[in-house]
Amino acid sequence: MLAEKSKYPGVHTIVTFDPTSEDENKQAESLGVKLYTFEEVKKFGQDNRIAPSPGDTEDLVTIMYTSGFYFLFFEVFFKKINDLFIILTSSL
User: Which terminal CB of the chain, N or C, has fewer other CB atoms within 10 Å?
Assistant: First the structure.
């Protein structure tokens, strides 16, 4: 992903499931990207817990993911309306 950074100028943070090398960390820093492992993100969440929020009917949740093989990006939008979640999907 770092090698493709110039194609995605809006990317500022990357979370990876794989361990990162010192070279990858230096490359990310030189590109202005924060590079985290999933374990680092998980530990941050464990160390910085917040109380759950029931949400509001106007809240919108977005989950972005890739196919993992072809690097096709997808988004799923969730909107809560009277305890019913409206699910919209799109391909970027």
Answer: C
- Indicate the average pLDDT of the chain: 80
Q: Are residues 37 and 6 in the same domain?
A: yes
Same domain assignment for residues 20 and 59 = no
CA 38 to chain centre: 10
Q: Which domain holds residue 73?
A: 55-92
- Where does the pLDDT of residue 2 fall: very low under 50, low under 70, confident under 90, or very high at 90 and above? confident
Same domain, 3 and 45: yes
Q: Is the full-model pTM beyond 0.85?
A: no
Q: What is the total count of domains within the chain?
A: 2
Buried b (16+ CB within 10 A) or exposed e, 36-62: beeeeeeeeeeeeeeeeeeeeeeeeee
With 60 as the cut, is the pLDDT of residue 84 above it? Answer: no
